[in-house]
Amino acid sequence: MKKTRLTMAQALVRYLVAQRVEIDGEIQPLFHGMFAIFGHGNVAGLGEALFDWQAELPTFRAHNEQGMAHAAIAFAKASRRRRMMACTTSIGPGATNMVTAAALAHVNRLPVLLLPGDVFANRTPDPVLQQLEYPGNPTISVNDCFRPVSRYFDRITRPEQIVTSLPAAIATLTDPADCGPATLSLCQDVQTEAYDYPEFLFAEQVHRLPRKGADRCELDDAVKVLQRAERPLLIAGGGVHYSGATAALRTFAEVHGVPVAETQAGKGALNWDHPNYVGAIGVTGSDAANQLAQGADVILAVGTRLQDFTTASRTLIQSDKTRLIQLNVARPDANKHGAQPLVTDARRGLQALQARLAGWQAGSKWQQAGRKAIAAWNDYYVQTTSAEKISTASGLPSDAQVLGAVKRASDPGDIVVCAAGGLPGELHKLWRTDRVGGYHLEYGYSCMGYEIAGGMGVKMACPDRDVIVLVGDGSYMMLNSELASSVMLGHKIIVVVLDNGGYGCINRLQVSTGGAPFNNLFGDCVAADDGAPLLDFARHASAMGAASEHVENLAELELAVGRAKAADRSYLISLRTDPDQSSGGGFWWDVAVPEVSGRAEVTAARAEYISAKSRQPY
């Protein structure tokens, strides 16, 4: 057997370079590149190996380990999980800075290869700088924090271990059902050790999306239920996008007259003006989709794990009134909520159902009800996003009005990016998606700080489309450093900062559960005599190399978005917004209220909470 002598790090890089993926008949590198922040634990080993393969596996410098991992995850999401990136860090804090991002990727089922440096396998210099010493178990390091947030985890303590571990990691990253972060914890001495690796390890491997077909019995059962349905509703989840099933979904909906609602991850599966579209569903949903969900006799959920925002904490879909079919490539998801499972790839599953349902359609009155409901919602959209009148108590524009202004100034092909706070709810209800891939929300983990780094990752995946990042002031302050990275790397993003003076979304939640405004808005926090500082986001962005401006009103905002789109580098626009007002629609969300309190408002909120919980199945 032919062998090649390489360090473990050199072999790892060469293996990654050999991975390919076929997308629409074109063979491309599976890995777009490697984000790296070097330090002791990876600079001498993996850093040296990456230097020799820069043309085939580019190395991108970042400013924050969590931020670079967010960018890598966003790249994978925008690439529909077909392509991905890797991230390497030093040991200690460099490594643990990526743990939050690993959890985000795990929750959202998104692929990213994490390569944190680790302590010495030989233990000779223990305790090395930044090493956590765990009494009673010297095999533990801080990298064990990655275990619960990784779909695959291995600590490489011998150079030959990557011969089996790398293929296992890639299998996880490319599996539709098991997809998620893979972590290889790389002991720093082992990275530099040489081994005679078999040449077959470095042979080119082309990965293709596997499409699992439906079990015949499960398909038969689903067909029987749908054939009897008069009032069906389809809920489109993220799996529709990852399967490339948007065309199949559109055809299924048109042929059978089925209204289509969308989750955060599924938004954009149908254009907002499609006749079968009924909008967002759940806690942050439209009145149209939620009304239909309550009246449906059968719900076909496609590619969604039906988390609590989609089901309104299990109060929106009533199992005693509505049959639920879960079409999902992952069996654990297909079996949730007492559903009738249909385990299959989304595209193949929809096509198989359509082939078996010839002649079946939703009732004509039900189809009319869907069109009437979304028409009413569209009228509400026009009113609530209009710039004509500011009706907030503060006199500042609402989030909905800002979204309306940005939408009017944007183009149909633009991609909107967001993650946390009140904006995802407003976007889910009110953003009008014109093209597939135009809506990028991280709402599985709802991680503050994802937005700017994520926007850069989306731009790396979609360089020909403008990327508009909508972010609140609180989330901007959490993690903004990759704005500088976007300037340095030449990946232009447009950032709109909505400054509502603190954590407005959580303040609203606090008040709605009976609490007094406390520790969320700057005016309700402990502060020096002069109060909280006035944050100048435009000047801060300028200091990081971005073009920027602050605007005073919605008219100025629309003009500023036009200037941002014409700019040659990342551009930030800031404006002050109202912290209190949110749009209508939506549904109940289970947020526990204290059983005992000295505040009458809390006692009243508790009574309402108990009443609402009575609608839950258990």
Describe this structure in words.
Helix 3 (65-78) runs parallel beside helix 5, helix 3 (65-78) packs across helix 18 and helix 16 (399-409) crosses helix 17 (423-430). The strands form five sheets. The protein has a six-stranded parallel β-sheet, sandwiched between helices. It has a six-stranded parallel β-sheet with strand order 14-13-12-15-16-17, with helices on both faces. It has a six-stranded parallel β-sheet with strand order 19-18-20-21-23-22, sandwiched between helices. It has four domains: 3-207, Rossmann fold; 216-377, Rossmann fold (3-Layer(aba) Sandwich); 393-576, Rossmann fold, CATH 3.40.50.970; 589-618, no CATH class. The mean pLDDT is 97. It is 36% helix and 18% strand. The chain has 618 residues and is of the alpha/beta class. The chain is built from 24 helices and 23 strands.
Provide tags for this entry:
618 residues; alpha/beta; Rossmann fold; 4 domains; 6-stranded parallel β-sheet; 36% helix; 18% strand; globular
Q: At CATH's second level, what is the architecture of the largest domain? A: 3-Layer(aba) Sandwich
> Could you please say which CATH topology of the largest domain applies here?
Rossmann fold
SS class: alpha/beta
Largest sheet: 6 strands, parallel
CATH superfamily of the largest domain: Thiamin diphosphate (ThDP)-binding fold, Pyr/PP domains
Q: What radius of gyration results from the CA coordinates?
A: 25 Å
Q: Categorize the overall geometry.
A: globular
Query: What's the number of helices?
Result: 24
- Average residue-wise pLDDT: 97
Point out poorly predicted stretches.
none
Strand order of the largest sheet: 5-4-6-7-9-8
Tell me the β content: 15-25%
Number of domains: 4
Q: What's the CATH C level of the largest domain?
A: Alpha Beta
What's the count of strands? 23
Helix content: 25-40%
N-C termini distance: 61 Å
